[in-house]
Write a structure and sequence with these properties.
CATH architecture: 3-Layer(aba) Sandwich
CATH class: Alpha Beta
Distance between the termini: 53 Å
Largest sheet: 7 strands, parallel
Number of domains: 1
CATH superfamily: NAD(P)-binding Rossmann-like Domain
Strand content: 5-15%
Low-confidence stretches: none
Number of helices: 11
Strand order of the largest sheet: 3-2-1-4-5-6-9
Bound molecules: NADP nicotinamide-adenine-dinucleotide phosphate
Mean pLDDT: 93
Length: about 280
C-alpha cells in the first residue's frame, strides 16, 4: 500500500494543486503522484495539464483529475472548492501555487490586470483554504502549502510593485493559519523559493535579462524546491526557504535596516535595466 493510502486508512490521499500545468506546481503534482497520492490539477492550459496528468498516471497516482480554469476570474476559487465538496473529492492537501509577476510597471498596467493578479494570488489561496480546511480539520489530517517567495521578505521592486507585498501577505497569513490549526493535524507552511528554473521568467518576459544577471549556481530546480517544501510542511514548519543561498538572503533581510534594503533593491533594479 502506498505511503499516502496507508496514512488515509486505505483511501488514497488527494491533493489539489493550483498552477499545476508547469514549474513548481507540476513538480508538486509528480512528487505526490510518485508517493501514491491522487491529484487534482488545475491551471488554464489544457494541453500542458494533460502532459502533467499523464506523467502523474505513469508515476502511479490512483486518480488524476484535470480542471482547466482561469483562477483569476471572480468567484472561480469559490466555484472550484464548492464543486470539489459537492463531488466529495475533498483534498487532504492544498497547494496554493498559481502565480506570476509583472514587470511592466504599476501605472502602465491596466487596473483590471492588478485586480486579476490580486484575485489569483491573494483571494484564491484565502478562499480555497477557508472552504477546504474545515474538512481537513474534521479528518484530523491536512497539508496546506502556500507558495510565496523570497521576494516576500524584501522591499517591493519598482515595476513589479504588487508581487512582493502579495508574497509577504501569504507568508504572514500562513503563519496565522498555522497557529490557528495547531493540534488539529493540519499543517500549514509558506514556501519561499528564490530563483527557480520554471516558465515564470518566460511568462513575464524577463528570461534573457535574468539569465544574464544571475549565474547558474543562483538557480534551483523546481524539483529541489518542492522536495524542500514538502519536507517542510510534513514537519509543520511555518516558513520554508529552500537552498543555502536563499536561506542566507532571508536571514540577512530579517536584520537589514529598511533604507539599506531599499538601496540594495534599487541598485539591483538599475543593474537589471542595464542588461
Ligand atoms: N520561478 C521562480 O523563480 C519563483 C520564485 C519564487 C516564487 N515563485 C512562485 O512559484 C509559483 C509558481 O510559479 P512557477 O515558478 O512554477 O511559474 P510557472 O512555471 O510560470 O507556473 C505558473 C503556474 O501558474 C498558472 N497560472 C498562471 N496564471 C493563472 C491563472 N490566471 N489561473 C490559473 N492558473 C494560472 C500557470 O498555468 P497556466 O498558464 O496554464 O494557467 C502555471 O501552471 C508562483 O506563485 C510564483 O510566484 C516562483
Amino acid at each position: 500500500m502506498s505511503e499516502a493510502a496507508e496514512r488515509a486508512g486505505g483511501r488514497p490521499k488527494v491533493a489539489l494543486i493550483t498552477g499545476a500545468s508547469a514549474g513548481i506546481g507540476a513538480a508538486f503534482a509528480t512528487l505526490l503522484a510518485s508517493q501514491g497520492w491522487s491529484v487534482i490539477l488545475t491551471a488554464r492550459r489544457e494541453i500542458q495539464l494533460e502532459f502533467v496528468a499523464s506523467e502523474c498516471r505513469r508515476l502511479g497516482a490512483p486518480k488524476v483529475w484535470k480542471i482547466p480554469l482561469d483562477l483569476s476570474l471572480p468567484k472561480a476559487p469559490e466555484a472550484l472548492a464548492l464543486a470539489l465538496i459537492a463531488e466529495r473529492a475533498i483534498p487532504d492537501a492544498l497547494i496554493n501555487n498559481a502565480g506570476y509577476s509583472r514587470t511592466d510597471g504599476f501605472l502602465s498596467s491596466a487596473p483590471e490586470a492588478h485586480d486579476a493578479m490580486l484575485r489569483l494570488m491573494l483571494q484564491a489561496p484565502v478562499t480555497l483554504s477557508r472552504l477546504l480546511a474545515p474538512a481537513m480539520v474534521e479528518r484530523g489530517y491536512g497539508r496546506i502549502v502556500n507558495v510565496a517567495s523570497l521576494a516576500g521578505f524584501l522591499p517591493a521592486t519598482g515595476g513589479d510593485t504588487l508581487y512582493g507585498p502579495i508574497k509577504s501577505f501569504l507568508i504572514r497569513a500562513s503563519r496565522g493559519l498555522n497557529l490557528e490549526l495547531q493540534g488539529t493535524g493540519v499543517h500549514v507552511s509558506a514556501l519561499c523559493p528564490g530563483y527557480t528554473l520554471t516558465e515564470f521568467h518566460d511568462a513575464n518576459g524577463s528570461r534573457d535579462q535574468v539569465s544574464r544577471a544571475y549565474p547558474d549556481w543562483m538557480w534551483m530546480t523546481a524539483e529541489a524546491v518542492v522536495a524542500a517544501g514538502w519536507r517542510g510542511v510534513e514537519a509543520n514548519r511555518l516558513v520554508v526557504v529552500p537552498g543555502l543561498l536563499n536561506k542566507t538572503v532571508a536571514a540577512v533581510s530579517a536584520v537589514l535596516p529598511e533604507p539599506l534594503a531599499m538601496a540594495m533593491v534599487k541598485s539591483q533594479a538599475r543593474r537589471l535595466k542595464r542588461l
